[in-house]
Description:
Distance between the termini: 42 Å
Structural class: alpha+beta
Largest sheet: 5 strands, mixed
Number of strands: 11
Order of helices and strands: EEEEHHEHEEHEEEEHH
Radius of gyration: 20 Å
Amino acid sequence: FLYFPETHGISFRIQITVKEQLETDVLLKLLFHLPVSYPSTVPDISVNSDQLTRAQCMDVKDKLLEQAKKHLSEPMVHDLILWIQQNLKDVIKQSATVCNEKTTLSKGTSTEDGIWMLLLHLDHMRSKAKYVKTVEKWASDLRLTGRLMFMGKIILILLQGDRSSIKDYLILQKTSKVDVDSSGKKCKEKMMSVLCETEVQSQHKRFQTFEVKEYSTLKELQKEFESAGLTALFSEFVPPLLK
């Protein structure tokens, strides 16, 4: 259970294991973002699970949001958790049926729909080892691939994955105490820039893993982008950082 207070509401993660009526245990990783207006408005919800497909996770999220709308103006997170524990089997069963129908209707369409890419620029890392470890854990938990790149004073994070996971990462990056300030006190990331957030195109290479890499020259960094089919992305956003 992680709790991140912030000026725009709070975000927290809950992991639950659903066993009842299922052939195998399903570990659900739920991320709730409660806006300041909660519970008058529904929370943002993200669902991830190693035991479920991306489509099933999206269906679980949609069903939770449907339930949330029935509980407006009253605290609802606990009720939502209880509901999905009791109804996960039915949601998965419905999801499989819909998935089969979609497969029949959309043969030949791209399987990359919904895969997005995010490029972030960080100004500095005072507690580098801790910061890097945290980014690696978030990428792993959210099943994101890409690179954390260091070149001189330039720090870039390039991520690829489900759009919902990309959004969840941004919430974590903005609301977590991920670094330390000049006095050594834990602090949030306040000097991060979102350089680009876009859907992955056919000419872009998909990263298979998330890696932390250091480059001694700008040319080396440029080659990393070029090998991933991201030459235009590099040209537009990276050179200006050197000025």
